[in-house]
Structure formats: C-alpha cells, structure tokens
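Quarterly update from the structural biology core.
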Amino acid sequence: MTRPDRSTPPVRRADATAAGNTDDRLRRSHVALFRGVHVERTVPVTLHIRIEAALLVVTPGSHVSHHTAASLWGGIVPDHPDIHVSSPRNRTRRDGITAHRVKQGQEVVLFQGFRVTTPVQTFLDLAHCLTLVDLVVLGDSLVRKKRFTPDELVALAEKHRGPHSRLARRAARLVRAGVDSPMETRLRLLIVLAGLPEPEVDHRVHDDDGTLLRRYDLSYLPFRLIIEYDGRQHAESDEQWLNDIGRDEALDDEQIRRLVVVSRDIYSTPANTLARITRAMRRAGMPVPRLRHEWRRHFPSRSGDLALPA
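Predicted structure, tokenized:
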C-alpha cells in the first residue's frame, strides 16, 4: 500500500529474521505491535500502522471492519483497544486483534489503501455491538463526514435482515444531518426517548447577505425555545465571551428562551434535565405529553438526580 507518511512498514518477525536480523537486534531497533509483528521504534504507531500490522497476521483475505472501520471512516464509536477485522474463517487468536466472521453480502471497498467495509455496512455490522444511543452517535458522525445521508442510511437499513437488524433500522431512522457533536446527539435522544416532541436540528439564522449569524443545536422555534449543549467549562477567549454576550442579547430581543445543558446533566442527572426541559416547554406554551420510560435504559441517573423528572 501507499503510506501517507512514507514511514517504514511493520514487518513479521520471521521476515526480519530471514533478512538477517537477530532477535537481539530486532528487540533493540523495533517494538512489537502484535505477537510476531514489529515496527521500527522511530515510527509513530498510528491507526494505519496498527491496521497494517494486524493484516500481516490474520487470515488472508481479511478486511477491516466494525470499530476500526468506523474510526477509519471518521466515525465516532466507543473506544476499543483491538483492531477489528472480518475474516473468511475467523481463526485469528491474537492479543490486540478481534476477528469477526465475514458475513454473506458484506460490502467492502478500497479506502486509504485498505479493504474496509463501506460506511453503511460498518453501521449495520456495529448494530450487534453498540447500544441504540451509540449507534445513532455513529450515524450522526458519519453523516457529518459526508459518508452517507440519513435517507441513504434508512433505505439500506430497511433492506437489512438478520440478527440486530431491528436495532439497526430504528437507529438509522433517528440519524440526523447537521449534528455537531456526540453530546448533541445524546441530548436529542434523551428528549426523544422520553417521548417529547423531537426538536429541529441545526437551525441557522442568516442576515440579508447570507452571512451566518447564529446556529441553534436543537430548537422549537414556533415556541421560541432552544436547547443547546455546552461542552465548555468557561469562555475560551475574550472574543468568545463577547460573542456569547451579543448572542444572548439577540435572543432576549427576539424573546427566545435558551436552555443550556452540560455533560453532567446528561450523564448524571438526566431526570432533572428532563424536568428542566418539560418546565421550559410548558412555559413556552408547548403541549407536553406524558413521559415514556425508555430514556431510563439509556441514561441512568446518578447520585443527586430526581426520582421523577416531572
């Protein structure tokens, strides 16, 4: 393959020995990535290098899949220490490598020098590994990377059959365009899985010249309510601080209520967050349905949360 950084490729120990390297010399000049596969100590161990090393020792004909394929495509998935491949005979037993059996009809393309499952195929494959929320996070992130559109994902997921296909179809229907971050996805899903009306995603306000003035993460603009995730602990700069002041004043002028949610509101006190959201909805004149309980499976409360959100 063509290596973007032109670094020295990983090498099998047997090949290095055949080329005249002793074990002692190999230990001094290389580090082991997997048992029997080494790379020079000066080479940065990137994802590409680890994939290349793994493919040296798995069953011939294997391709990159699952978590590793998602990362290669620029998607967001929970961290996993292994390199994931799909193999014709799933016989690889090696620390640091997870081998899956190739599925019938699995779609594979050449990308960045590797045979890898397509973005949609990767999403479908991960339905048996990820929760509903993590799968939607992945879908939103791949849409943001322009790997597919929500409509394309839904169309292909509807044709998918087999174990976990129901989860894949449901997650696909929840994927949206214009999502900025995984936490924005989580906030939206907390709202939706509680049975509340789904907010508009990524509403943008422009001036008469088409210049972007403001962007709202999640909004119910007919009721002048926006809900936003803020991952910052404080203003990042004086300029940002001044921009925030100007933004808040503009919202006040338009009589728009802005409800801000931070990380602990989602991970620790989701019931309290839902109470804040439903209270803001009622004050804005929105009809608020009776809450469903599904959100509890995906957003467990921690110490200090409310017993009931409303």
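The CA atoms of residues 142 and 259 lie 27 Å apart.
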